[in-house]
Amino acid sequence: MQAQVFVKMENICKTFGNVKANDRINFDVHQGEIHALLGENGAGKSTLMNMLSGIYKPDSGSIQIHGKEVVFNTPKDSIEMGIGMIHQHYRLVEVQTAKENILLGRKGPFFMKGAHVSKDIREIGEKFGLPVDPEKKVYDMSIGEKQAVEILKVLYQGADILIMDEPTAVLTPQETRKLFAILRNMAAQGCAVIIITHKLHEVMEISDRVTVLRKGTTVGTLATKDTNPKALTDLMVGKTVDLAISRPPVERGRVLLEVKDLCAYDMDKVEVLRDISFKLHAGEVLGVAGVAGSGQKELCESIAGLYPVASGQILYEGESLVGNSPRDIIKKGISMSFIPEDRLGMGLVASMDMVDNFLLKEHHNQKGLWLKRKPIAEKCAEIIRRLEIKTPGVHHPVKQLSGGNIQKVLIGREIETNPHVLITAYAVRGLDIGASHTIYDLINEQKEKGVAILFIGEDLDVLLELCDRIMVLSEGAVTGIVRGDKATKEELGLLMAGEDLGMEVAQ
Amino acid sequence: MIRMAKQGNMTGRKAAAIRVTAILLAFLASSLFIRILGHNPLAVYGSMLVGAFGSPMRIRDTLTVAIPLTLTSIGILVAFKMKFWNIGAEGQILMGAFAASMVAYNLGNLSRWVVLPLMFLAGFVGGGLWALLPAWLKMKWNTNETIITLMLNYIAIKWITFLQYGPWRDPASMGFPKMPNFASGAIVPKLFGIQAGFLVAILFVVLAHYFMHHSKGGYEVAVVGESVDTARYAGMNVKKIVLTALVISGGISGIVGMLEASGVNHTLNASISAGYGFTAIITTWLSGLKPLVVLPVSILFAAMTKGGGYIQTVYQIPQAAAQVLQSMILFFVIGSEFFVQYKLVFQRKKSPNPQEGGQ
Amino acid sequence: MEGFWNIFQAFSVVLVIGGTPLLFATLGELLTEKAGHLNLGVEGMMLIGAVAGFAAGHFTGSPLLAMGGAFLAGGLGAMIYGFLTVTLRANQVVSGLALTMFGTGISSYLGVNFIGQKMSAEISAFFSPVAIPLLSSIPYVGRVFFRQDPMVYLGYVTVALLGTYLYRTRIGLNLRAVGENPGAADASGINVDLYKYVHIFLGGALCGLGGAYLSVVAVPQWQDGITAGRGWIAIALVIFAGWNPFKAILGAYLFGGLSIIGFYFGNYFSAWNISQNLIDMLPYAVTILVLTASSVRKSKEKGAPKALGVAYYREER
Q: Which residues form the ABC transporter domain (chain A) (predicted)?
């Protein structure tokens, strides 16, 4: 029997400002299949799926669901057609319970009666292998549990078309495998599953068919079994690319930064860093792996003097940093750049231009009451040339630049301060392959100059290829420090999940 | 179908044009209101102009109102730039006046050259300390500064009233609850028939311009306003910046109190702030937080206040109409910000053939 | 001692009356904030309600139309704020301040002809105290809480309704989601803008009722600026109450008491040589203390709605 066509999108166009996010895209999904939507960051995958879930409206083109032409004005219209989307950043109300989140926006009697809903939730959960406690508050949940709530929520809505946006980005390899089993189960029960990703091995592992997008256009739809990762990459990037990240051998220098038994607590007195100890040498890249929220941010901020340290030591060239002001720490040559989810967050002032953003670090060094912007502007112009930053000029607000260029501005500024220790978190977040490699090259360049680099990353493949050593965090504690050229992804995954592998700490 | 989209490039000139259009629209909307009341809007606006600028004396009166408005706006601007919603300028004016009056009543007989600078300083300190309290509370416990600054307004009013009925009551006023007049040495002299405070106002406008746009302090204030996290990250001492800026903000309002008590009322009472602290919130916002724009906007609002008083006598339109007009302008300008940031995209209902519509 | 007890009982009765306008305004602001909108225009909306209620009562002689008019006028005033902040995504702080200025101006403007005028006897009779059978005979409590005017009872009912609405109904659940995380609400198919508009309107309407309670029932004559800063205290009370309607009633009565303490216990204070003007500072000073105290203790559940004050724009990128 020919499988039914659940989704058919034709000639979809969508423009944001002057950017064509989607240009005449064609896409279709059948019942019972897992369909991967593959493309680089910025290729238009999320935009396309947001139109399918009613969040954006296409400028032109047609959408057919279950063979019926539809126009979605709101997410509600889409939900009613049986479409459920699970966003990369979960859309859950933290102070409400799983049940309340699942009930959001649902029709039903005016007064809520909880009992049978809890029973329904448990039943659906058992059917698909998603154990969720309906009464548990979201803020008490682990990332995996939150994802389970999101999935249950769309199933409870009766969705038979499931869209998952980068669902594995925050999961360990083991959790990913569990998720994939759930997705296969759902497909077997007659759902259509769309998975947005930029990870090739996942496409190969889970999908039946794959549609590749590039720069807002459809490059093609293939059966997964007829293709291979190399061919997919070439389609995705548009030219043959070398995906390998280099790890230049550098003679490691003395210990620049040493962290000993570092502990810290958050506002609710929960321990967020537990006895963290490691040494960072000149001329090495020490990677930090861990699921989101394992203490990466707190570690970065503690070293930068922004987070209160409860006990333990942070030594820079043998001298304690604890208690020093952020400004003193900057002056010692320790630079920290943290790319948050919205990319701007802490390191840059969105509405200010590049010159004023460079002044953030520079203005302390200027003498007198008044600012001197001219020498900074010249420096900025040079960095624009060197890092090939695309911007109308040094006086253009940074928030109007694209994500990759914003990150180049931030990292360019940090490197410009000639740091001895460079801490960089999620430096390639949201960047395409080309821009990511520019950043890796910059990091390697610094390493060759003898800078000590702490590289907090998300992608285990990148960490394994780029870093000399990798430290794994789990729930605020170090579960292992391994060598980048020896460790495997499986090992990292187990360490991320908090398992003690009894491995020797790589020095 | 209409859709919103982020405005790509917006030049300063275009943004200014949008704001001016908003002000004109506010006048237009108010015209409707005046029309409904049975008056000719153009005639009413004309009378307001006459009331504000019709004679040298009226011009002097208008400028006399513009001085405190300008200065208070400059003070508020420093706080607003930091997104510290200081709406306590009324109280800061009063406490500045209180501190200055303390000098005036105790040292008023000394030379003007001694008393006035001391009063000026006292005014700054009085207003500054009154603004320091909410700033300190916000830094310490993140309390809501809007409500605290406002509550402090009421407390300042009650405090001055208390003095007026109690310890500072003029024994020579034969039972009438008022405070004594300042000695002549404690009175700001007039220049061109206007209190010499206008020199202070102009000086502060220029100072504020250089401070906000070209000094390290102004830069730090702007960064803190955009993001406290970023400021901390860049090694700024956020607490010190906020506290200092608020002392400056309140201090400037305190100077207004000194000038109003000394140069206009020649005594202290609870109504010397005359609502300037609130009107200045509007003028500050309308100026787009740019010190040089504060001056013309303040003169415009002073003119509306004076003109409003005049139309009351001519048309029996209550004085409060001026306040309604001012808040209308504020509504329209706040609303117009949207059009600076976003643009509306009009779309045909039926999507065109993408092959043709593509370009 | 007996004299003190009598004064205390009389004081308690008036405390409830003094607290009722605060209660309506606090509940109104609470509802608005649950939708994620900080509306600093409470004072303005109360004044709009006060003048509209007075005018409606004055011209129609109908107590219901007086309150209905205040409800509608307060709500419509809030819609100016709503349009600015929901549709035009304007800064909520400044928009609220603008609304307060507008309300102050327009009430003063429209009220010019009412200055010194009293509410008609029929309306005052309608709003005179009614004893609730049985309950009113409980010692002290009955006298204080159950021999009051109908609007006081409406206040109790509103608290109960609002509490049920917020925590027991689907719409309440959705509303709280809108205030906490509009992105999540939107993705769940909730019409975020509609929820915001409706609750901004209702919030303003309740503030309008609070204002009209002053001009029509409690005072009951027109005075310029009749609310005298109560709108601001109401905003502080929302924080004090931890966004919980049941705690709001406590706060409202507490502050209602503070505003009349000088009047009832003036003799005691003057015996200690404390001026009336200093006693008048109490409600404002206590607001500062209470606000500071509630800022010191923080918890996940009792905090402000997470998205309070943040504009939501779906196509943002």
A: 7-240, 257-500
